[in-house]
Amino acid sequence: MDSLVLFCTGALIAGGLFWFVCVLGPAEQKGKRAVDLSGGSISAENVQDNYKQYWSFFRRPKEIEKAEKVPDFVDTFYNLVTDIYEWGWGQSFHFSPSIPGKSHGEATRLHEQMAVDLIDVKPGERIIDVGCGVGGPMRAIAAHSRAKVVGITINEYQVNRARLHNKKAGLDSLCEVVCGNFLQMDFPDNSFDGAYSIEATCHAPKLEEVYAEVFRVLKPGSLYVSYEWVTTEKFKASDAEHVEIIQGIERGDALPGLRSYSDIAATAKKVGFEVVKEKDLAKPPANPWWSRLKMGRIAYWRNHILVSILAAIGIAPKGTVDVHEMLFHTADYLTRGGETGIFSPMHMVLLRKPESPETASS
Ligand SMILES: C=C(CC[C@@H](C)[C@H]1CC[C@H]2C3=CC[C@H]4[C@H](C)[C@@H](O)CC[C@]4(C)[C@H]3CC[C@]12C)C(C)C
Ligand SMILES: C[S@@+](CC[C@H](N)C(=O)[O-])C[C@H]1O[C@@H](n2cnc3c(N)ncnc32)[C@H](O)[C@@H]1O
Questions:
Q1: Is the CB of 34 under 6 A from ligand 1?
Q2: Which CATH code is given to the segment(s) 46-353?
Q3: d(CA 85, CA 32)
Q4: What sequence ranges are listed for the domain SAM-dependent methyltransferase Erg6/SMT-type (predicted)?
Q5: What is the pLDDT of residues 345-360, one digit of tens each?
């Protein structure tokens, strides 16, 4: 009898563990498994120190730290979060408005396809993905448009992940990925037929610098669309709750400082672009972009327990628990940013590089 009870208890524990790790492990369809979480290019024993280093950025005055150190700090951030993002969100590191009757995956694809439809590229043309992550949007866009997409990211680990995914998807003949800084790109002038950036240029300390680089590499007459992270007209710097939310978003998302929606078109014009269209895609009648984030709260608790167990038994790097906790709070700040309407991650701007400098509007 005793051995039967022991056997049943053991079987239940083993079954429960299998369910928790293997069934619940890949929080997102086709995503990474919890047991594969790493610190990107950072070795396991250095994850915790790098996490501390990441936070030290926010303890120093912005003016000193800002410009030249930002790409390194962003690189560290993506070493820390890339696996968790892939595990819990998927291969597209951005938001999209929810669409009734459509899954999150479908809504994500539509948001990505809209970007390439806006820049009007033809099959075989060459376009650039500015800040490409692990390439979720790149693959959707290449498959939809048959354009050749070159993605650039500052994070080497993401380059390797993106290349692996491109190959697996059979899209490596259309998709190329390079490691580099979008503030100083290694591409010649006038070499792309179009450009897009999805929730990436918010990492640039000065928007002007990245827009000027995109302007330089675009062929005259071609289009660039960007989905920008901004504070909206509802944000009041005198409101302590607003400030807390925006600072929470900046700290949990490696942002050197969120900019106002009103700066976007002005900056684009300053570097020579014509503004073709500007629209906040988060505004009604669009459905909330933050609903997926809010709905996931129970899953995040489960994920946190799982990450803590894996770190305790030495499968996940120690600092993973801290990084996960940071993201947990970030999800809350982002949701509050959406609900109050003071923040948008999809302020869309469509820009054209004039045919000749003379046709540029003042
Ligand atoms: C554009 C950027 C990233 C946007 C989003 C892709 C990510 C912002 C916050 C992230 C997450 C928050 C909570 C995590 C959760 C605790 C964990 O269990 C599973 C992953 C999360 C859901 C994670 C996924 C990606 C985000 C939604 C920024 C950086 C400019
Ligand atoms: C939130 S992710 C978005 C990725 C991708 N656009 C997507 O939607 O899946 C931001 C991306 O911008 C990249 N990035 C940030 N700063 C960069 C820089 N200075 N140079 C190149 N890439 C940068 C990051 O490495 C990351 O890949």
A1: no
A2: 3.40.50.150
A3: 9
A4: 77-354
A5: 999 999 999 998 665 4
